[in-house]
C-alpha cells in the first residue's frame, strides 16, 4: 500500500476516533464521566474531615438554606474524624454570615491554640461564607481568603470568589415543586420560555421586554411554574436573580437559559457538570429580540440532548434532609475531595 494511502487511512481512523470521542463526551452531563464515579466511591471510604469545635452561636435549627443542610449533613456524616492527623481537610465552623474582621479574629485564635493552620497557612481548611469574603490587609483574613476553600451561596458577590479553589452550593428551593426527575417523553412546548419575575436584579429590564411577549410566560410567585415549566422549552435565569428553582426546571425538562453579560465562574458543581451541555448562556445586549434569536437557534437535536442531560444532572442539585447517594451534599463533598491535596508551606515568623 502506498504511503499516501496509509496516511489517508490513518487520517480517517483518527477522524473516526475523534468523532466517537466527541459524541461520547456530548452524551454525558459530566466533565469526567470515566473518573467521576470511581473517584466518588473512593471518596466515600477514605475521605476524612476534622471539624473544630463549633462555637455555641453556630448551632442552628434552620434547615431551609443550603449552608445549614450542608453543615448538618457534614457533622452527622462518616466523613468526620476525631483524629486530626488522619484528616485530609479541616472544617472551620464559622457562622456563615460573619464579617471579615470577625473571621480574622477567629483564625488568629486558632493559630495560637492549635498547630494545624500554621502547617499549611490554611490551605487545607474549609469554611462557609454566604456571599464570600473580600480582601483585607490583615494576615489572618488574607490567608483565609487566598488559601482556604470558601463555600458560598450561588451566585456570589463579584470579587469574592476565586474559581480554582472556591465552590458554591447548589441552590435550595424552600418550596420545591413536585416534579419528576425525568422530562416527559411526549412534552409539547407551548412557550419558548418561562421566567420567574420575583427576585430579579433591579437593573434587569429583560422582564419588562418579555412580559407582553406571547412566546414567554412570566411567573410572579414562588408557587408558580410547574405547569409553565412543563409547557416551556427554556427556563430563564438572570444571573444575580432568583435561581433556587433551577434544579426543578431541569428535572421537568425545561432547559436553563442563563442570562449574563460576562463569563460565569461560580456555577454550582463546576468540577462535576458540563454546564455548556445542559444550559444556554446568553447576554442582554441584544435585548428580548437577541434572546429569542439565540433560543430559536438551538436545533431540535441539541435541545433534546440538553433536556435529557439536564434531567440526569438535576439529581445532583437536590438537597435531602437525610443525604442520598450522588445528591447535592455528596457532590459538594466530592468537590472538596478534589481539593484535598494542599501545598505545605514553609513556616516562617511574621513580625
TrEMBL record:
Q: For this UniProt record, give its keywords in alphabetical order, as a comma-separated list.
A: Glycosyltransferase, Golgi apparatus, Signal, Signal-anchor, Transferase, Transmembrane
Would I find 4Fe-4S among this entry's keywords?
A: no
Keyword Metal-binding listed? The answer is no
Main subcellular localisation: Golgi
Q: State the InterPro entries in the record.
A: Exostosin, Exostosin_GT47
The residues the entry assigns to the signal sequence are: 1-26
User: Its domain of life?
Assistant: Eukaryota
Places the protein is found: Golgi apparatus membrane
Q: Name one GO molecular function term.
A: glycosyltransferase activity
Which family, according to the similarity comment? Belongs to the glycosyltransferase 47 family.
Q: What is this protein called?
A: Exostosin GT47 domain-containing protein
Amino acid at each position: 500500500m502506498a504511503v499516501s494511502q496509509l496516511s489517508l487511512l490513518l487520517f480517517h481512523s483518527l477522524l473516526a476516533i475523534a468523532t466517537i470521542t466527541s459524541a461520547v463526551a456530548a452524551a454525558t452531563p459530566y466533565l469526567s464521566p470515566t473518573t467521576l464515579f470511581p473517584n466518588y466511591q473512593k471518596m466515600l471510604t477514605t475521605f476524612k474531615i476534622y471539624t473544630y469545635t463549633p462555637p455555641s452561636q453556630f448551632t442552628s435549627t434552620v434547615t431551609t438554606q443550603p449552608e445549614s443542610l450542608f453543615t448538618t449533613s457534614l457533622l452527622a456524616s462518616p466523613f468526620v474524624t476525631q483524629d486530626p492527623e488522619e484528616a485530609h481537610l479541616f472544617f472551620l465552623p464559622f457562622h456563615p454570615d460573619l464579617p471579615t474582621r470577625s473571621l480574622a479574629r477567629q483564625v488568629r485564635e486558632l493559630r495560637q491554640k492549635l498547630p494545624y493552620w500554621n502547617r499549611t497557612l490554611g490551605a487545607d481548611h474549609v469554611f462557609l461564607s454566604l456571599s464570600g469574603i473580600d480582601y483585607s490587609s490583615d494576615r489572618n483574613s488574607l490567608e483565609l481568603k487566598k488559601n482556604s476553600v470558601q463555600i458560598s451561596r450561588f451566585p456570589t458577590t463579584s470579587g469574592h470568589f476565586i474559581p480554582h479553589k472556591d465552590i458554591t452550593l447548589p441552590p435550595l428551593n424552600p418550596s420545591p415543586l413536585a416534579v419528576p426527575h425525568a422530562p416527559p417523553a411526549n412534552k409539547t412546548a407551548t412557550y419558548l420560555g418561562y421566567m420567574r419575575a420575583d427576585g430579579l436584579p433591579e437593573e434587569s429590564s429583560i422582564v419588562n421586554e418579555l412580559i407582553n411577549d406571547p412566546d414567554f410566560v412570566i411567573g410572579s410567585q414562588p408557587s408558580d411554574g410547574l405547569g409553565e415549566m412543563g409547557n416551556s422549552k427554556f427556563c430563564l435565569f438572570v444571573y444575580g436573580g432568583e435561581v433556587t428553582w433551577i434544579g426543578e426546571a431541569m428535572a421537568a425538562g425545561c432547559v436553563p437559559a442563563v442570562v449574563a453579560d460576562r463569563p460565569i465562574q461560580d456555577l454550582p458543581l463546576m468540577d462535576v457538570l458540563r454546564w455548556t451541555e445542559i444550559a444556554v448562556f446568553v447576554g442582554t445586549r441584544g435585548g428580548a429580540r437577541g434572546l429569542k434569536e439565540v433560543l430559536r437557534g438551538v436545533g431540535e437535536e441539541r435541545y433534546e440532548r440538553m433536556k435529557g442531560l439536564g434531567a440526569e444532572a438535576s439529581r445532583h442539585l437536590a438537597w435531602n434532609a437525610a443525604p442520598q447517594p450522588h445528591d447535592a451534599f455528596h457532590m459538594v463533598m466530592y468537590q472538596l475531595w478534589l481539593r484535598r491535596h494542599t501545598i505545605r508551606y514553609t513556616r516562617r515568623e511574621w513580625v
